[in-house]
Sequence to fold (935 residues):
Amino acid sequence: MSVQYKVVHCNINGRAVERTVDVRASLTDMLRNDYSLTAVKKGCEVGECGACTVLIDGETFNSCIYLAIWAEGKHIVTLEGLISPEGELSDIQQAFIEETAIQCGFCTPGFLLTAKEILDADRMFTDDELRKMLSGHLCRCTGYENIFRAVKKTMYRRQGKEIDF
Amino acid sequence: MRKVGQSVARVDAFDKAAGRTKYYEDRMPANALYVRIKHAEKAHAFVKSIDTSAASAIDGVVKVLTCFDVPDIPFPTAGHPWSMDPGHQDVADRLLLNRHVRYFGDDIAVVIAENEVAANQGVRALQVEYEELPFVLDVQKAMEEGAPQLHERFPGNVLKHTDLRRGNYAEAIKEPGLIKVEKWYDTPTVQHCHIENFGCFAYEENGRIVVVTSTQIPHIVRRVVGQALGRPWGDIEIIKPYIGGGFGNKQDVLYEPLCAWCSTQVGGRCVRVDCSREETFVSNRVRHAIRFHITTWLRKEGTIAARKVECYSNQGAYASHGHSIAAKCMGSFGQHYPCDHLELDSWTVFTNRPAAGAMRGYGMPQASFADESNIEDCAAALGMDPYKFRMMNVMPKDFHDAFSGNTNYFDSFRLCLEKGAAYIDYERKKKEFAGDTGPVRRGIGMATFWYNTAVYPISLETSSNRMLLNLDGTVTFQCGETEIGQGADTAYAQMVAEAVGLSSYKDVRVKSCQDTDITPTGLGAYASRQTYVAGFAIRQTADLLRGKILASAAARKELTAEDLDVVDSCVVLKSDGSPVITLSELAMTAQYDPVHSEHITAESTYTIRSNAYSFGCTFAEVEVDIPMCKVKIVNMVNVHDCGSLINPALAAAQVHGGMSMAIGFGLSEQLLFDEKTGKPLNNNLLDYKLSTFMDHPHLEAQFIENPEPTSPFGTKALGEPPTCSGAPALRNAIYNATGVAIDRNPINPHVLYEEFSRAGLIRDAWKEET
Fold:
């Protein structure tokens, strides 16, 4: 069987890049194998667990069920893109540490990117809305409790408020 | 300030938040060959032949190996310490690839290829001819005469039967006026569902085999790979990087031996085995489904006269952890609600299902579901309040178990129950909810559990570690008790800082990655043992290191070591606390001494010969929508006495995760099999209902901190305990809400529909018309 390749041009974490990829490759494969962005995690590879979540033009997608070639011309952000060039964590990453929302760390990258999408909406959501928006991610360590606290706390802070749990 | 007892941030939190943490697949050499496994598509069969010609012809396929090629060396897989007594060694019952297929998904061949696509195509191209055999999925049916037989060595499919007798049950039940509560309880097959699937890679280096693997038990994996390949154990080096959860599945040796062997079959090239989610569900390990038959004899005043419990544990196809789980499960009954006359029996039985192994709780979630359901049913039979019935009968203060040596020093059960009842406002809500008669009814329920810490006296309990004083006065720490997400490394850093006398836990460099060539031998992450057992060895090695630090400081400063102490990373005079030399100055002076250069280090092994009871309870408040057959959890609290907390925030996080797993066990999770073929039906995260963000209320974690007398840090088990009592608490809350006692889990809408129909709470008008 002949393998077809295609050049994909896109912007990853603020940098314009291009690479020739197997047309059958998923975006997960491309980000991990071609760009060494290993924060993109594989938990099911069929869009069930959310570990491979990335932002494509500001919107979250399961990169495992998104073909690499569809990334042509897109702006992609992985967890590696959230840290500042000086190595400073973003507010939501810091909140995950403060609220003990990280255990094994495998679902963490995906959750952080969905949290970023929620927080970038720059508005307050109800608890139920937050839970629903975060429900595309599975976690077996945390019971979601502290992840919820970290996201809610950061949402409040971005609105200039503090929350006391 | 004390370093333990503080809610400090995890030592690995920054990297995990930044996405820099490397798991096995993130360390994969680019040229690794893909090993993909052909899983049998029969529940029970002999492989007659495998035609590999089409697979071998695929471009990119390097080698095809089948069950006809593997060495004839049966090996065990349980993550148990080795025993020098052959009678206590684990059952060696599988080969690298098996001609005798014992479950739908058994490993029968591998295709090794340059890329993943070719490897998968190769697997699909294999032509397998089977001689089909009758199969059996159910424990009781497997025990019947004439049932299909799985292992020649175990006629009747019984891996093991054990019993425990106390008093005289047969006589005791003749006491006049006793009330008998006899019931069956059923728990399901569930899976660990760590988000990182199992995987590993292996290669040869200077004639030895290196395996990098997602495991909880690197030192045990080394031994089993050596056994399975017939190689000296020193020929094997296991490297354990960060892992994406384990929960007991990775406390089994999974595909490391197969991966290592495959490397040897392709000239030592690097090969990788990566389980898909679907494979992880079926071809790794699952939790034992255990069926219980409980008969409890009650006196009218609310005491238990006698009890008989039978546990039937579904082992699946291979022994793995085997009877250890059912034995632990059975053992819980005699201690949880002690009574004078007991007959306990447990059977572990082979069936043609995926092999069951260790899973968080190791038999106790099953025991707790059955025991706490039955206790609830007993209270109901007596017309007693279930809280009061538990307070009357649960393990009393000073209860001592002669076998483990454990003592209930503080009456922890009652303290936990009181705290839980207060949080959930039990008395008030119970009265308020009793009036609910509409379609949506509220209920409140509770359950308790106890758990051992570590595995003494059943198996060896040992921990070794190494401390190196660095030139900046920090301490590098290594041990074999692994970080698997629970936060062990952070607890170690806190304990080492405390025991050595460092200014901060940040002055401890915990080497999270175990390498069996370098890391002192430890048994790994299981049995909720790490903090407890590592604590003994940390205290001992810290004392050795402090001794060397003080001797070196004393010699250099012409003082007496006995007059010195280490406080906040500085050697000080005991008398007035005045500084003598900082650890960093001392380390530099000692290291670069032109005459007596010295790297101050210490290493030791501690053999633990004690155990400790860990206790707790769950209270749950639910709303049951009867016509919709839906349960909403409104409120849930776990209260634990796991001794003194090393890190309260991490402890609470551990409890949340356990409660979540218990919610899944109680209400939604179940691996299903086709009765006609034995094929698993829902081995994916869409059809297997793991609880999501939407299925949880706020999870409340509370603690009673009674310092454990046997532990240098006053600590005991917390890893597994949070998952033990949630499911029966939910069951009892549903019972309280609806009056329907459901004796199987998960209590999902399908089960509720059946049970509510039977109870006459709902009726199907359509069915009645036709």
Q: What stands out?
A: Residues 9 and 97 of chain A are 35 Å apart (CA to CA). DSSP finds five helices and five strands in chain A. Helices of chain A lie at 27-34, 91-98, 108-120, 127-134, 145-158.
